[in-house]
Amino acid sequence: MSILVVGSVALDTIKTPFGKAEEALGGSATYFSASSIFFSPVQLVAVVGKDFPKKYIALFKKRGIDLQGLTIKEGKTFRWEGEYGWDFSNPKTIATHLNVFAEFNPKIPETYKNCEYVFLANVDPQIQAKVLDQITKPRLVACDTMNYWIENKREYLLKLLKRVDIFLLNESEAKELTQEANLVVAGKKIGKLGPKIIIIKKGEHGALLFSENRIFCAPAFLLESVYDPTGAGDTFAGGFMGYLSKCKKYNQAALRNAVIHGTIMATFAVEDFSLKRLYSITASDIDKRIKKFRELTSF
Amino acid sequence: MSILVVGSVALDTIKTPFGKAEEALGGSATYFSASSIFFSPVQLVAVVGKDFPKKYIALFKKRGIDLQGLTIKEGKTFRWEGEYGWDFSNPKTIATHLNVFAEFNPKIPETYKNCEYVFLANVDPQIQAKVLDQITKPRLVACDTMNYWIENKREYLLKLLKRVDIFLLNESEAKELTQEANLVVAGKKIGKLGPKIIIIKKGEHGALLFSENRIFCAPAFLLESVYDPTGAGDTFAGGFMGYLSKCKKYNQAALRNAVIHGTIMATFAVEDFSLKRLYSITASDIDKRIKKFRELTSF
Sheet harboring B3-6: ordered strands across? Predict the structure, then answer.
């Protein structure tokens, strides 16, 4: 089953204690698609400028990502520049140039409109809603967000949440949205806002899944070398949605396994700058790491 | 198999966002023994002053803790005053009055000297070593420490580590001891210092166990209400050592289950001030929570 992803394709300049990457391929839709393509076909909707390097288009194509929904517009591609300290959480944003992404008004191609699995990456909730308006019969809709929208477009975000099945957000977003310090309480509160499945991502500390009045507490995979955490959340979402779309179910067992697949995909994302590692692994690398994860966490 | 614990018995005054407890029963040996007594007999070695309330002595006795090693000395009992913020990590110490604990020079009673399981709670590593000198045939020795000793008695701590089997420490202590930001690398480095079993406690984020070149990553139990995190680490150690002593093995399966038992005991410690909750639970409460933990984490 195809997954439609709507989000950003960007050029990232990233500094970490281990080095620097300049104008590297990035963006939420990029990380999501690189991850979910291992499990399911992906239709990408995003916008880039005329300056977007052809080599990156070729990379997308090589991975088999459907680019009918990628608009190439007069102007420059969205650029983000950030820096991470030793703890690898909360990067310092040095510069954001939205460029063509500032007027992102996604038009869903006719051939995409009947897709059943939808991931609305972190963009303005009004735009996320406009995307949903164009989908004829969505079966499973997931969305992400960020603190900026919680603070500045709360009303629209709350409206959107009534229309989505799955809400993925990180720890600080969950706390801010609910004004609640305890994540168990926060997760339950979010469940009352609409989504029947909630995932709170805790970065290096794993993730929590709330569904059917049950909670699943997934530990994080331990890595000896983290080089660049950019895109980990979207890569997680890609693995999660990809797995669900592949197994065509979303009962408790499927959801828990989807969280594990999301976690594992995210570990590959952070092992090198940009998408270097994600674009070099094979299905067998994923299987091996899932096996290792079971070994690491079973008791 | 009896466990010998050497540590502090104190009177704590604690403020958290949920309330305050004054001159409440506390101390590392207190929390450890309240936890391990569920699994194994406990022999406690500590010192208190003449002002130590008789009701607390009665509480120890009621729980079946062997108090032959508890010295009641002329002077005042060790007092600690601290305050926790909303994140419940790193309490602010408002006052520390060591009182009789300042000259703690534990004499191990003759009847304790042949004990096989020993827990050296967080005290000066020179004192921890002196305790070990008095034990005739220890089978499994565990110790804890704190940043202060890492900074001020590093040499003695390193000497001690060559004599212990199990080293329990928290995340920041592991990083400081090894000068290493990555916990996997830190755990492996500590393994080279002597202990064959290392547990890095990550507070609300669970614990890591390093043994036999393997790592076990235990998630934390999720609680909706945390009232007072004081003593969580010593309670964890009590459940961990108690379980090992009860099952008389320390292979991989036993060690992993011991970590789970430690985690579960710690959840009870933090659900109320001082030892209120720990002193009110039954073995059946522990079993139920372990079952719930499996449900929460299985995939």
Answer: B66-73, B42-49, B3-6, B117-120, B140-143, B166-170, B197-201, B207-211, B214-218
User: Are B184 and A257 inside 8 Å of each other by CB?
Assistant: no
Residue of A209, A212, A217, A225 to mutate for B, most B C-beta atoms under 10 A:
A217
Handedness of CA B161, B167, B172, B174 (dihedral sign): positive
| B41 CB burial (10 A radius; 0-12, 13-18, 19+) | middle
- CB spacing of B202 vs A206 below 8 angstroms: no
Test B259 with A184 for CB contact under 8 angstroms: no
pTM: 0.91
- Could you report the per-residue pLDDT of A165-175, keeping only the tens digit for each? 999 999 999 99
Q: Which residues in chain B have Cβ-Cβ distances shorter than 8 Å to A185?
A: 224
Neighboring chain A residues of B183 at a CB cutoff of 8 Å: 222
Shortest distance, CA A84 to any CA of chain B (angstroms): 14
| CB-nearest partner of B216 from A206, A215, A299 | A299
* pLDDT tens-place string over residues A259-291: 999 999 999 999 999 999 999 999 999 999 999
Which chain A residues have a beta carbon less than 8 Å from that of B214? 295
Q: How far is CA B259 from the centre of its chain?
A: 13
At residue A31, the 3 state secondary structure works out as helix
Scan for tokens 């961990």, then name that residue.
Answer: B240
Averaged over successive runs of 10 residues, the pLDDT of chain B (299 residues) comes to 96 92 97 98 98 97 97 97 84 94 96 96 97 97 96 97 98 94 94 98 93 92 88 97 95 97 97 94 97 93
Task: Report d(CA A27, CA B121) in Å as an integer.
Answer: 49
Cα-trace Rg, chain B: 18
Tell me the mean pLDDT in the region A237-265: 96
Helices (H), B112-231: 125-134, 147-152, 154-161, 171-178, 183-191
**3-class DSSP state of B49:** strand
Taking the C-alpha atoms of residue A257 and residue A240, their distance in angstroms, rounded to an integer, is 8
**ipTM for the predicted complex:** 0.85
Residue B144 DSSP class: -
